Amino acid sequence: MKRKRILSLFIVLLGIFLKGNAQDIELYQQFNGRYDFTFIGNTMNTEANGFFTPCYALTSSSATLNLNVNDQIEKVFLYWAGSGTGDFDIQLNDVDISSQINFTAIQNSSLNHFFSAFADVTQQVLTTGNGIYTVSELDINPFIDSDTYCNNATNFAGWAMLIVYKNTTLPINQINVYHGLQALSAAVVNVQTQITITLSALNVLDNNGAKLGFIAWEGDENIANQESVYINNDLLANPPLNPGNNIFNGTNSITQSSDLYNMDLDIFDIQGNIQVGDQSLDISLTTAQDFVLINTLVTKLNNQLPDATISIDTVEKTCDSKIITVDFTVYNSNSTNELPAGTPIAIYANDEFIEFSETILPIEIDGSWSSQITITLPENIPDTFTLQFVVDDSGQGIGHVAELIETNNSFSVEMTLIKTPTFNALEPITSCNEGFTSGTFDFSNYQELVKSIPSGAVHFYETFENATDNVNPILTPSNYSANATPKEIFIRIENENCFSITSFLLLTKNCPPTVYNYISANDDTINDVFTIEGLRNIFLEFKIEIYNRWGRLLWTGNQNTEDWNGYIKDGISIKKATDGTYFYLIFLNDIDYPQPLTGFLYINH
């Protein structure tokens, strides 16, 4: 297995003196490519909240989206928030919007409730494009009153849209969107509270244009008490709009507005706070007095790396073979740079390295490359095993290509080689010769006797080719007529994947003939001749002799003569034999019947 250093982006939230059921800020979505982001939004407060401000909020407000002509919208996330337990159904440009994710928090000092809501409005904004966006029917007035929110200066409402857009002129960036609803709140005035967010193993290749953005609620312009943001222990500030000790102060750094009462849409340039080669980025938020709700955090870092993943698509197996053919695909999804040609691929069976391959072509961002490989499994690999493909591994468990994520390079499937079904040997079946070695047979019970296990289909065929091609099966195995024997019958035994073919013989033997020892030689077509059933075409060398009671030979016959009709040759004339009893000898001339058949024959005209 690969032993790579872990390159996962995660958030560690510490040091928060907190309130109820808030949701930690966590990574929601990541964008890799030529992306950037911006905010628009507006407050529902008519002025900064405080003891002497009106105790109500507007139910609608507007803001303008004005992207450049070459900026292509990728995603638009709408957030709205306010005091109280929540209004989760609003309108955006008169279109009904319902919250897809709800966030709530409680202020620890007064137990006041606050909410935030989220909806993906990408399709609506793609349709509308640049222009004025109005959020309406956001009404927190039923929740607020002077004794709780207003006299505590925590009455607010507002909305914001985060727009992620693509432009071919941008460098390759990674945009990370984190959201939740966490309170930055001092338990005691002048005693600092801190939240630390650590972005680990970033592999910063170029710090040019690095940015950090916030959507925050309830910040107060008039409270400047250690309300700061630190990047890698460096104080973040953008004076005069965002002084270092009052970072959340009702401002919009995109429009340079300072009247975004009790909400903040701020984007900071942090390229001076990170260096090429940095492996982590620490964001610390502090306050010693103000109550602030952090809703959304967005980072843009130039991080041009591929991200190799692999899948096993199909495995072709051959019956009774350790050779398999595997179709697989290498992906470079959600990456910020192409995956180079020659990226190694290690193939393992039960953790044993068995084969090596590599990519032939570079794989572009969000691209893929499919290939096929035929593998001969070592003899020590059992029939059931784990097949594993690992990209960016040459067989020593060591990666060669720096990637965004180093822990998603493998793909495993449980494999079972396929075997032809086993079967039982079958004895020949013998039937009586019906003439020229023909016979009738019943081998229907062989359908079960041939199986070594109960399951599986069984069919009979007259030729090996028919059995192989599974065509022209014998439909009546219980009454099968063979024109000549020995006759080989082929059996196809099937399991889920494979089939076996075996066979058995149909044989005939010369069974004793049946002698009908009465002749009524009156030409009525009934018993007019001496009939012996099972003689002709079976005992081909037979000879018959007929004697009278005194032992005189009267008639002889064989395969070339007709059956005796009761006439005898007397000198040169032929006459009827008289009624009475005669004696016959039937010489079968067969090894199984060395002695002639003897008996009496009765003639009655």
Question: What are the defining features of this structure?
Answer:
605 residues; mainly beta; five-stranded antiparallel sheet; 4 helices
Quick synopsis:
With 605 residues, the chain is mainly β. Helices cover 4% and strands 45% of the residues.
Task: Please characterize this protein's 3D structure.
The chain contains four helices and 40 strands. The protein is mainly beta. The strands form eleven sheets. A five-stranded antiparallel beta sheet has the order 1-11-18-13-16, with no helix packed on it. A hairpin with a 6-residue loop joins strand 7 (101-106) and strand 8. Mean pLDDT is 89; it is low at 1-21.
Number of helices: 4
The biggest sheet amounts to: 5 strands, antiparallel
Low-pLDDT segments, ≥5 res: 1-21
Give the quaternary arrangement of the chains.
Answer: single chain
Gyration radius, to the nearest Å? 48 Å
What value does the average pLDDT take? 89
Head-to-tail CA distance between termini: 102 Å
Number of strands: 40
User: How much of the residues is beta strand, in percent?
Assistant: 35-45%
From the helix content, strand content and strand pairing, which structural class follows?
mainly beta
**What strand line-up does the widest sheet have?**
1-11-18-13-16
* Morphology call: rod-shaped
The helix content is under 10%
